[in-house]
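Submission sheet (multi-component)
Chains listed below:
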Amino acid sequence: MIEDILVCLEGSSSGARASEVAIEVAQRLGVPLVGLAIVDEPDINARQATGIGGSSYKQQRDEVLLEDAKAQAKGWLDAFAERCRAAGVTSRALELRGRPDTTILEELQGHDLTILGRHANFRFETQDEDHQTRDTILRHAGKPVMVVPEGSAAAGPSILICYDGSLASRRALVSFAQSGLAGERPVHVAAVDDDGATAWEIANKGCKLLRELEVRAEPHNIVSTLSIAEAILERRAKLDAGLIVLGAYTRSRFSRMLWGSVTHDLLAASTVPLYLHY
Amino acid sequence: MSTLTPTWAVIPFALYLFLIAVLPLVVGRFWDKNQNKLALAMAAATPVVIYLLGSHPGGALLLLETGREYVAFMALLGALFVISGGIYLRGTLAGTPAVNTLFLAVGAVLASVVGTTGASALLIRPLLRANARRRHTRHIVIFFIFIVANGGGLLTPLGDPPLFLGFLRGVPFAWTLRLIGPWALVNSVLLVVFHLLDRLFAKREPAVQAIAAASSVEPLEIQGRLNLVWLLGVVATVFVVGSYGDRLFASTAMRSAVQVILMLVFAGLSIATTEREIHEANRFTWAPIIEVGVVFVGVFLTMVPALSFLEERGASIGITQPWQFFWASGGLSSVLDNAPTYLTFASLATGVADGGAGILKVADLGALAAHPVGQGLLAAVSCGSVLMGAITYIGNGPNFMVKAIAEQHHVRMPSFFGYVLWSVVILVPLFVVVAFVFF
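Outcome: structure written.
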């Protein structure tokens, strides 16, 4: 059962939605939230070739960016605390200095679930997106992470678990079942395969595993000419699922390079939160 | 006993330039302190000073001349730095491709009047403000570095420190106007390429149309206008004293002293008459010019035997043609500061043009500038040193300043090698054309 949730705070629109989702989940489960803001001091202060006269400008630049980063972090933490107070959710603010990926990975080990925005940008001193941090967290977390897209669409009532029988997929299914997130919501287990019978068998195995963990679920086999990610999203829409559960990066790096990544495609295209466990 | 400069005497210069480039990366905290930079400068200069005073013919006089040149050099850099720091462009224009291109075009001209550093400091913040609502702005800053921080400064001795060093050593004030061909070619091509690129990026941003029509656009207003008078004073001082000084003053020392004093006076007037708010808006501090002054102590001192060495042996090194000087001086300028690189290759050019006759001297680049062969070599060195300072962030002083200011405005600038990719793709083909057409 989830006992506390870590929310990664930053300025993207998906980050704002992630805070809202975290508060909704915390209200439902009656658990506290920890809001984490990162000041990426190591990257701001990283050494650079500066030329003659440049080191003075570098120092000035570093000071300005650091002050900006601290002010932004404080702003997000204050806004988060205020939203939690208004929602009646217990919360704690945490500001840490360090590289975003390593700092978040270290901190999340002490929490049961981590929630962050799909386009979370922890290097907010620049305009660019920062998917590298998100992907590093997903690959190395070893714990459940919920990635929330931007947009304010109301969450559908049901939950769709994508199950392919792999170790990561099994891990995600088990941790989700134990989290308490299912509650009274309808749960569906879907398997995608070219052979309908194989997919049906895999989906049923997933449902059986859930039954052992006291979660009722309905199996679905998906045979489609679409890509796996597209097929899953199509089924999600049909079932009006407000959450997709899957094991992250179940393919090897080499396979991902050749065939692409279902996780990556779903992260890019899903309009509902993804519960991932790698 | 040989009176030629020994090879080992060049080592402190080469080593010092290498350390200036590498130390910020390796021991950043050490390099941050100006006293450490001064200590390094002194350490590098000590064997050179000992050699000049003990073994080099006329070494003491050389040191004296070097000191005079250093003071004049820093007086100009300091005066331009202070005066441009007292001018602020308030207001916000619309960041459309047309406006941005016009900004860069103005910067290309201004750079030759107030120097690449002054023009960059003056224009970068208004340009960033004009484009604050745009998503793709990195290319704007990159082309700003190409044009305003480098290519624009080719036309007068005020434009870039290498050209002022040439002027201090006798190159006539108006001599660099003959470089208008390369200046016009490089800057006009860059402006056209930039305009097309900016239009491409702007098409991806529908908001640019809204920006153009926005009522939040405020006309630009120049604050600290009195500094334009002081700036005119500096330009007039350099021109008059440099061009007519031998007629006006009894000695070189007096001429130099008057030039320095006048520049310090104008800088002082700028400090006294500029409102504090303008300095705050420009984030004006003394730190950068102090850093330049400290580092250049080492450059000027260690440079002395290196220049003598090249003057003596120039003809035998193998670089003899203008196009070779263009690429060699440019190549080194891209990774080492362009001021010492200019003098290094001007020295080499002196040796080549002189052909062992012992007539041309690096101390008198005016003679080289008037020499039938030498003038072509000097033109190539000038163009190479100034233009190719744009190839890396460390090739010219204002490059990193512009990058740092852009990052303060949350523009994600490319990494060192990311920027080099831009400059290699865009600038190197253009420089091939310049070399082919002019050298």
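Remark: Chain B has a mean pLDDT of 90.
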